[in-house]
User: Which sequence fits this backbone?
């Protein structure tokens, strides 16, 4: 299913949970969520992802049930295992490597830019991000943590696929 979604596009739908950490990490998480269009108000919400190809890239259009949306453009570079993806989401660009294990993809954050400016490695969050298929459902997690502060932002869910 992962390969079909990446090759041919399709849509995913289901319910996700969103959360931040505590204290200063929560403040940073709320601010990041606002910038990326993530609705943190309820903690759980309906979620739809449209995946399409566009000029050498994968376009992921994520829509939340409150109408908020987050659009990412993934541009591949190189070849596995040294290649990866550049993910552009608003002002944030991530350089992502991919590890494949346990039947899933696990993203490795290699670098990041904010409004085109490189972020120093010491400022980069620790990430747990990946996707896999479990019982026919697309299961994913995205979790950002900062040293000394802990969890900044996490969203995750199990989605049903409609491949094209």
Assistant:
């Amino acid at each position: 299913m992962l390969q079909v979604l990446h090759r041919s596009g399709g849509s995913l739908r289901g319910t996700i949970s969103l959360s931040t950490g505590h204290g200063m990490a929560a403040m940073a998480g709320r601010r990041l969520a606002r910038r990326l269009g993530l609705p943190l108000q309820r903690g759980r919400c309906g979620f739809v992802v449209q995946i399409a190809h566009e000029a050498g890239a994968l376009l992921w259009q994520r829509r939340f049930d409150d109408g908020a949306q987050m659009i990412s453009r993934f541009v591949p570079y190189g070849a596995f295992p040294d290649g990866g993806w550049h993910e552009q989401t608003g002002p944030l660009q991530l350089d992502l490597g991919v590890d494949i294990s346990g039947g899933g993809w696990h993203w490795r954050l290699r670098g990041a830019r904010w409004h085109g400016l490189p972020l120093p490695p010491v400022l980069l969050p620790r990430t747990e991000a990946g996707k896999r298929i479990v019982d026919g459902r697309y299961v994913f997690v995205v979790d950002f943590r900062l040293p000394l502060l802990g969890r900044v932002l996490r969203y995750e869910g199990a989605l049903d696929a409609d491949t094209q």
In short: The longest strand covers residues 150-163. Residues 2-42+50-163 form a domain with the Lipocalin fold (CATH 2.40.128).
